[in-house]
Each structure stands twice: as C-alpha cells, then as structure tokens.
Design goal:
The protein is an alpha/beta fold. It has helices at residues 8-20, 23-30, 34-48, 65-93, 103-107, 110-120, 133-141, 193-205, 218-226, 271-282; strands at 53-54, 62-63, 96-101, 125-130, 147-151, 159-165, 167-171, 183-187, 209-214, 232-235, 244-246, 258-263.
Length: 284
C-alpha cells in the first residue's frame, strides 16, 4: 500500500486560508502570493482526494465537511511539529559539563564541589568520570573531558592549583604497628604515586615492609585498612573520621605534601570550567 504524505507547508497555508477564507489574506499571513496559496490548496486536494473549499461564484468561500475535518488534523500536526522543534532546539542549546577525577578524590573531596556546582547550575547536564590521572589527562587532551582534578603531574599547560595537602599514613583504630616486624601495606599497583612515595620513604629510612594487599582501586585499599590487614597512605583531605593517622612516633617516615590541581585543554576555557575551579578552591 502506498501512503500519500501531507506537506506541512501546504497545511500551514491551508490553515491560514481556512481562518481568513480568503487566499489573498492567507498569502499575506504566510508570505506567499495568492497563486502560490491556490497551488498549495490544489495539491492538498489532490493528495486527500477531497474538495476542501466551496468556492461557488457569488457566494462567500467556506470549508467543505472534508475541509473542516482536515483543519482539525492540520492544527494538531502543526502544533506537534512546533513542539518537536522546540524540544530538539532546547536539547541542542542545553549545556553540558564533564569533570573527571581519581577514585580517591571522588570518595572524599569531589562531592563538595559537585553539590555547589549543581546548585549554581541546575540546568547543566553534569557527567563525572573516574580514572587514573594518566587516563583523565588523555581525555582532556582529546577534548573528551572538560576538566580533570588530579594530583599534580609533570604536565603544566592548562593547570590550576586547587589545594595543597599533606600525605599521611593511615590505619584502622584497632591496628597496632610494630617496629620490629615488616610493615603490612595496602596500595594500588605500581604507577600509583602514593605507593611510590611511601615505599621510597620507607626504603630510605631502612624500614622493612611487605605488600599485604594489592588493589586495583582505592576502595579495595580502604577495605584492607578497615579489616586491620594493612596500613596505607592518602591525602589528609581523604582520611575518614574513624581512621587513625600514624606518624614518626609510630616509626614511620614523614612524607612530602601533594598538590591537587585541575587540568583543562588550553583552548577549552569557559565560564563553566572557570566556576567549577573557583568552587573547588573554596571547598577546602
């Protein structure tokens, strides 16, 4: 079966003609000459197989019963068309913003930033991505991520300091750290900056250690801490309330501080990223 299609432009002219019952006036409404309106009405009559206007000589032009029926449908179709275009245009104009960070910061410092940002920009579609610093910086470089908040990296372009923090040793409150036995540790695999700093400091002071737990995520490290299996290192801002912080009196070396920074593509600076950075620096 072959279905004929009703042309929306023709329907628009038809509605104008039905409202004014005058092709010349209808042409003025839709920006067409009278002959163009007549041609469009004729095309609609051919498509529908119906006479739409009664245009008898000496009588005022009126809609036929078929014309009345088409008018009701035409108004619905034109309204639906307008609503569809409006919705699509709003979607196209709707702003989006994506921020990425490591799981460590996502578990601790990021919620404060997101809450304030969402309150300030309720109409912005926000995307949050967790990954390693290397992965996130690659996404920023490809313009697939608006902003990355990570521990300071050698890359300097597009960097803004968010916060300077201490790096501390942490354990569960029940954990006892002996000074004679190897220190039980929980860290992410090699490549983790916290791990490399901790091991370097321990080796430098001659403190023996054993890697009790290797975890692919900070969640696993935290689970090991809570299970009294090991101790670890994390930024002070990420320390949970029920952790104990260990120091030199526990036979552990002091650690250098870290810098939490944001990275964005040098060509991607905009109001949203500027405001997110501003909110981030005030979140501490």
């Amino acid at each position: 079966m072959i279905y004929m299609l009703l042309d929306l432009d023709h329907l628009r002219s038809f509605v104008a003609a039905a409202d004014s019952l005058n092709f010349s006036d209808a042409g003025l409404r839709v920006g067409r000459v009278q002959s163009a309106i007549s041609a469009q009405i004729k095309a609609l009559e051919e498509t529908t197989g119906q006479i739409l206007f009664d245009r008898g000589r000496g009588k005022p032009m009126v809609l036929t019963p078929a014309g009345e029926k088409l008018l009701a449908h035409a108004n619905k179709m034109l309204r639906l068309n307008a609503t569809t275009l409006s919705d699509l245009r709003q979607d196209a104009e709707r702003k989006t913003f994506s921020v990425g960070t490591t799981e460590t910061y996502a578990l601790s410092i990021l919620p404060r930033m997101l809450s304030q940002f969402a309150s300030r920009y309720p109409d912005v579609d926000l995307t949050v991505i967790c990954g390693t610093s290397v992965e996130l910086l690659a996404l920023v470089e490809k313009r697939d991520l608006d902003l990355a908040i990570v521990t300071d990296q050698p890359k300097s372009e597009g960097k803004v300091l968010i916060y300077e923090d201490e790096l501390v040793w942490v354990a569960s409150p029940r954990m006892h750290v002996g000074t004679e036995e190897p220190l039980p540790l929980a860290f992410m695999p090699p490549g983790c900056e916290f791990r490399s700093r901790a091991l370097s400091a321990l080796d430098k002071m001659g403190r023996t250690w054993r890697m009790t737990v290797n975890s692919l995520s900070p969640t696993g490290v935290r689970a090991a801490i809570r299970a009294d299996l090991a101790i670890s290192v994390m930024p002070a801002a990420s320390v949970e309330r029920d952790y104990q912080v260990l120091n030199m009196t526990d036979g552990l070396p002091a650690l250098k501080g870290i810098r939490i920074v944001s990275y964005r593509h040098p060509e991607a600076a905009n109001t949203l990223s500027n405001d997110f950075i501003s909110l981030a620096t005030k979140a501490f």
